[in-house]
Amino acid sequence: MALDLDTDRIHRLLHDGARDKIYPGAVWAVGDSRGTQASGRTGVLDPERPDEPMRHDTVFDVASLTKILAVWSTLGCLVEDGKLQLDASLGDLWPEVSGHPLAQVTARRLLTHTAGVPLRANLKNLYGTDPQDVRDGVLREALHRQPGEAVEYTDRAALILGYLAEHLSGQRLDALAADRAWDPLGMTQTCFGPLSPDAAARCAPTELNDSTGTHLKGLAHDFSARLLGGVCGIAGAFSVLDDLATFLRYLLAPNQANASPGFGTDWIKETLQIHTGELTPPRGLFWHPAPGTTPEADDVWVHYGFTGTGMWLSPRKDRWAALLTNKLYYSRDREPLTRVRNEFRSLAFA
Prior knowledge:
By secondary structure, the chain is of the alpha+beta class.
């Protein structure tokens, strides 16, 4: 039975966003544990080619959804493998950080953005352009505050956890994510960039690159990801709507016979609950309650990407949703897309 969705209102909401130049175009889907139940697209791929509509299989720079698709999923594998204990001090797990301030931090603190690490990445200015120098600098950096004092979203949490996953697995993050999560789920069009020319041709362009005078396309928008060769825990992954639908469906129904990533029910259940006590805003493990909702009343969890992407999940409602836009083509102003996202969520989970 199809979900009870007002798809006309969703279409109108997203069409109006393209008309008002909040984004050039958007694709979306809503589904449940059985699969996709409704989807659509609006607008154009690239305003410089106004006759080319946004496509269902458009490739998007998913930005911070990388934190979920690559880091969160592989950490779940390592937890379920017994290689990572969320409350162990990193200094006890990882010789590279022993004797440095990060040694006292735990993976759970990083996953809830309560570790007290610096709020800005600022990698090039602090550590230069050599990837090993960046890694050394990040892993030896002083804390911004004591762990557990405050919830403060920071890209560094995912960068550090990506490095940790590489250390514990012996694989680079892109290979680890593909081997343990994306390939077993059949997410054949999800990868880290830079993209091949064929994939880049289907990619939604993001922000204007001042150095080239063209919009970024097939190359990560996130500067830290570009600095590190395209692969890091912060950002750098590219994906398509169908792959995100596959991923989200698995999170609702991890016992599917044809899906065998290295994480399952235990990790998902552990993640989608509040781990931050009385601190605000409340956080699960990287996922957080959608704005305007509470876990008790609504059970709708979300993660966003800076480029204009987002995905939502509600085990209680047996529902997921994904919205992919390239809003950075026009502006970094967050407010217009925030309104669209919140209304899309309310319609998708009505």
